[in-house]
Amino acid sequence: MYTTNASRGLPRHRSRYPTERYTRWAGRALMAAIVIALMWLVLAFHLNGQWMFALLFLVLGASLAIVFGKRQLMSHRYIFPALAGMGVFVIFPLLYTFGISFSNYSSSNLLSEERVRAQLLSQTYRAEGAAFDFALYRDGERVRLYLQGGALAPQAQDQRFVTAPLNLDNPEPRRVGLQAADRSPAGEPLPMREVIAARPLLQGLTLVVPEGPELQMAGLRSFAPLLARYEARDDGSLYDRRDDRLLTPDRETGFFVADDGERITPGWPVAVGLDNYTKIFTDPDIRGPFLQIFVWTFAFAGLTVAFTLAVGFVLATLLQWDQLRGKAIYRTLLILPYAVPAFISILIFKGMFNQNHGEINLILENLFGISPSWFTDPALARSMLLIVNTWLGYPYMLLLCMGLIQSIPRDLYEASAVDGGGPLTNMWRITLPLIMKPLTPLLIAAFAFNFNNFVLIALLTGGSPDILGASTPAGTTDLLVSYTYRIAFQDAGQNFGLAAAIATLIFLLVVGMSLLNLRLSKVKV
Fold it and tell me: Would you say residue 154 has pLDDT above 50?
């Protein structure tokens, strides 16, 4: 007779209970491991002085423990990965960039004050007039280091020292004592090529002179006393022994400043308030190029949308023509540029527009006797960008217009034909008005995309030709995004603070366009 667990008085699903229990404990163990790993990251970033990253992972670990530790928040577990990813990869970079914009963070002000102080205190200099010429002599399978010349004291103008036999295969840093020598070791010194081969050994040696300073390698031919250049004072200043001057920390600029006003690099980041933002609009060397690039960015994005829409709309209208044969072939050929990766097309166009060997100038020179300077003339460079970007963007507009045109009822065109309307009348009075409302949010999205079209500028012109008189790297074809990139990574000073300020302004502009897009998307068609 067949019996069930219930008929025998046993709990239901008892056979599955151990599996569920093990699964639950495995999940808890995994969560604990993740939280421990995040706490380890918090500690590591905190010890390295990166408090913002430490705070990020602290918040992430705490929220993870709370969401997955309480049953009341079970419904939030499914959306937590998406929120955590948005926080780590979107919100935190925005806040970090916004924070940097209020500092002088740059390649000259990169380390913390403690690390700057430690780096300066680790610097050494060679004492003048105390260098020893050296030579290497073979001693069986080892070598001896022989030093001669120099002056450790005024009364000792000619001193000779020799080391014990050294193993060339052991380049580990170590201290070696010197012995006074009356004459040179027997044999000929090793040639320079063997001295160069033994450089790892020599650079790791610290030679201890009897009743004298320690010596280290100062070149391929000499050892010299290397003395600590800076001496720390109780008031936080540093004394420069080599140049006999005092360095005082200036916490408003983030540099150690010498008596004569010289700033000693590297420095450390300090808060500068709104200086980076005011510099954009008040410094003539930055304001002029910034405004020029600002206007060109809007013009580039607007003209690109206008040209791509015009080409895409006209082609989409022609493809709806009933008398046109082979529509499928034409559609495939016209959409092909959309299938080719953009960077490949850009590089191909860069070769075609080459001023000396490009196919476009070759054709123009043979037909009209002209050879335009596409990459050196600002107007031609901007025209080239618009031509290439129109080629890259019209297939997208073509697909949008084709889909919207097909949604228009055919009865409207039949009624227009009865009233004597032609193709142009249908396009201006029926097609275009009906597709513009649903197309407007997509046009704003295309405008925002081209507003930050970094790839095109970086691969085709690199921002060139440059704007003369600019104190920062700025070109006539730069967009705001490429201008920001050049300030942050191509400028000699790498002014990350100024670049972050410009990036914040770009973000605000894009947010404004996104809000406009959302507002227009709610309009009923």
Answer: no
3-state secondary structure 85-154: HHHHHHHHHHHHHHHHCCECCECCECCCHHHHHHHHHCCEEECCCCCEEEEEEEECCEEEEEEECCCCEC
Q: Which long-range contacts (CB under 8 A, 24 or more apart) does 127-133 make?
A: 127/213, 127/224, 127/225, 127/226, 127/227, 130/213, 130/224, 130/225, 131/218, 131/222, 131/223, 131/224, 132/159, 132/161, 132/215, 132/222, 132/223, 132/224, 133/221, 133/222
Centroid of chain to Cα 404: 40
Whole-angstrom distance between the N-terminal and C-terminal Cα of the chain? 70
Instruction: Please give the pLDDT value at position 17.
Output: 55
| DSSP H or E segment with residue 468 | none
Distance CA 38, CA 65 (A): 11
**Could you tell me where in the chain the CATH 1.10.3720.10 domains are found?**
283-521
- The model scores a pTM over 0.85: no
Run of H or E residues at 217: strand 214-217
Q: Which residues of 502-522 are buried (b: 16+ CB within 10 A; e: fewer)?
A: bbbbbeebeeeeeeebeeeee
pLDDT digits (tens, 9 = 90+) for 219-259: 888 888 878 899 999 999 999 998 899 999 999 999 999 98
Q: How far is CA 22 from its chain centroid? A: 45
Pick the more confident residue, 491 or 84.
84
Rounded to an integer, what distance in angstroms lies between the CA atom of residue 397 and that of residue 442? Answer: 9
* Cβ neighbours, 10 Å, residue 307: 18
pLDDT for 2 beyond 50: no
- The CATH number of the domain covering residues in 124-228: 2.40.430.10
Domain over 111-123+230-273 is classified CATH 3.10.650.10: yes
**Helix orientation angle between 432-451 and 496-521, rounded to the nearest 10 degrees:** 160
Q: How far is CA 188 from CA 168, 185, 191, in A?
A: 18, 8, 9
What does the longest C-alpha to C-alpha distance in the chain come to?
120
Which residues 6+ apart lie within 8 Å of 179 measured at CB?
Answer: 161, 162, 163, 164
Residue environment code for 173-200, b if the CB has 16+ CB neighbours within 10 A, otherwise e: eeeeebeebeeebeeebeeeeebeebee
Residue type, 111: L
Helix (H/G/I), strand (E/B), else coil: 327: helix
The verdict on domain 17-100 having CATH code 1.20.58.370 is: yes
Residue 507 is encoded by which pair of tokens?
A: 């973000």
Instruction: Name the CATH topology of 283-521.
Output: MetI-like fold (1.10.3720)
Q: How far apart are CA 394 and CA 336, in angstroms?
A: 11
